[in-house]
Amino acid sequence: MTLAVFALCGFAMALAAPFLPIWRFRPGGWLAAGVPAASFVYFLTLVPRIGDDEVVTASWNWIPTLDVAFALRVDGLALLMALLVSGMGALVVLYSGAYLQGKPGLGRFMAYLFGFMGSMLGLVLAADLITLFVFWELTSITSFLLISFETEKPEARKAATQALLVTGGGGLALLGGFALIGIEAGTYDIAEITAGGGGLAESSRYLPILVLVLAGAFTKSAQFPFHFWLPGAMAAPTPVSAYLHSATMVKAGVYLLARLHPALGDTTEWTVALTAFGSVTMVLGAFIAVHQTDLKLILAYSTVAALGLLVLLLGIGTDLAVKGAMVFLLAHALYKGTLFLAAGSIDHGTGTRELGKLGGLARAMPITAAALAVGAVSLAGFGPVLAFIGKEALIEAVLHFGQAGEAAVIGAVVTGGTLFAVAAGMLGRLLIGAVRAPHHPHESPWEMLAGPVLLSVLSVVFALAPALISGGLVAPAAAAVAGEQVKVKLALWHGVNTALLLSLLSLAIAAAVLWNAPRLRPVTARIADAAGPLRPGELYYTSLLNLNRVARQQTRLLQHGYLRLYLAITLATAVALTVAAIAVRGGVELDNSYGDIAFYEVIIAGVIIAGAGLAIRASDRLTAVVALGAVGFGVALVYAFFGAPDLALTQFLVETLTVLLFVLVFYRLPRLANVSPVPTRVRDAALSLAAGALMTVLVLASITQTSDHTLTAYFAETSKPVAFGRNVVNVILVDFRSLDTLGEIIVLAVAALGVVAMLKLRREDSP
Amino acid sequence: MELLLALTVGILYAAGLYLLLRRSLVKVIVGLALLTNGANLLIFTAAGLVRGRPPLVEAGENVPQAPFADPVPQALILTAIVIGFGLQAFAMALAYRVYRESGSEDVDSLRTTEDPSISLPKVEAAE
Asked: Which domains can be identified in chain B, with CATH numbers?
């Protein structure tokens, strides 16, 4: 219960935030930050318990018939993520209060932010796949709202739609994958699924499950070829980028892969898919980051690279790799949070994020600059920072990775070198030299410095004293991912080994990249131009445009508004399907034992047919009325001759009334003109004749079928003894089915009212 | 006779549907009347014809003398005739009203509840 309160308090804040009067005052942000801070403290108190292999759970029945529960569960992995989400959440809320101070809609912004925090906590703590999925989708929706927060900007709306479509599409795939897992494993309980891991990997549905789950995870975590939405999402206010698009939401995909690793991992398919997509994403992200000049875009693409790296590690899946992934997950959240928050602070203090317009910030904004420096050192992966331990673990894991190890090693070294170049380039331009900025730079208020400073300090402290996190946080998390106990011993200095030498090699690459940057840029620009139309981002736009075009065209084709064409299409479809059904069943059974025909019956039928023909050809209204009368009275005669005097009487009566009505109304309507051209009439005639012929065949076929006469026998036997009436038809209508008859009378009464209304009522403005 | 009536049903259907596909609202209503008769006759014929033996119980008897015409489809058709008449009357009144209000009885020009000056894409330019 306590768990649920602390996990879901974000939603309560989300509902309340727009109505709270605190946002206009500066301490409003401080107060609001208290909520995630309380959650963070609560999760901290769980650390010793989780370290002792305990799990904390909370569960409610949700849809018991489907075996779906609303269940939360804290294990090592969930706890690590929950600490990140709530801790970063507190810092970001504090930061946003100052960053957006005085902006209209701060309450709305806070509502989205808290909604996102609640969703994210729910996601990482969910113990049930369906619960997880609901929170997963909620993060997509709240992320959409946050990216499009500045709704007046078209690029914000566009980026938000793009993020929603990409992650939402992945979410659909994920739902399919979860459903398959549920069918295969017989439960949605994640702990059961991961504990009985062997079952899924050997099942025949393993491949579809894997593909669907990966589609969900890769879209969420911006893996190639879905990486393009992440840089677009930078349209969001900077604290959102710091929170969602570096530390938390984009990690949801990585989290999901880590969570399901015991159940789905360690197969060839898993390893190949994750290492391949992870490596490509990693290298691509690093290379694109080099060319960016906007501070936020640099960070966005380096995030893409980091996410690729995490996926690669999970793909390798050895204890070493899992341990590295957990360390790097934490390290990346710390340093990327630092960098984004510092970037926001620079934007806030100088009015721009363009590298080319900035310089000398070490003097102008010393605290921000210091935090930025620690973040950049972490991004580069060198120095006494936690990211260094993470990167060494990565290289170590890749070195011990059997298949295609060389390629992965090269990828890791190149990425490391490129990111180093990115970090060095960024620092060099921002901090050194004369003070340059669009307007006079000023240091940010303490709320905006607390985050970067705290995060960068933690980055260093954890690196120098890794014992703080290795036993309590990393080991339980790694155990949850590996599905078994993992020994975690972290150290900053391992002595001179291969990993260190490779790190130095990547340093050389970085130097080469930096040295040759002016010469390399035109080359890479040309490559980027050539690949332009094939870039996933471009493909996304063209496919979206084409989708809209197809939708427009098919709407114009199908929803044209011509009633008779709708009717013609319906008719043609009905005829075609019926004929097809008959053909599939091998034709209809017709026999020749149809009753004999009396002479007068031929005359009656002739009258009906002639009437119908005349009705079609009539150009004169009176002729049409006469033709209709002939048909109606002919049909009445048929009833009279074949044992249905009641029908005949009713038909005579109704026919007389109809003719009267026609005469009354038709004289007020225009003459009957042939407005359609001949081809249209031929087409309609062919269609009608086909339908008519089909009806004839169906009538003949149905006569040969023996029908059920239970009802007939029942009514015949009970009409007199039970209902005291000798006319069976009458008894059925007014006694056995009297309620139906009442309904019929009501229908007629309503129709009569409608007729009177339409004939008598006049518009007030008409003369 | 079943053969002949089946043919009649087919012709009534064909004629009714053809008229339903016309642009003139009056023709549509005439088609509706033909279709109603066709459908009733379809039920009547398909249920099996019994010549001259209505389902009546003779005085002093308890059940009708076999063979007798099936009363169940007759009850259905009786309802259908009456409802069909209601529909017919309503449709005619509606057509009258539409003509009065819009000055047109061309179904194609009645494609929108909005201002008719707002045009929709033309499907058949020739018409």
From this structure: 2-53+68-108 (1.10.287.3510)
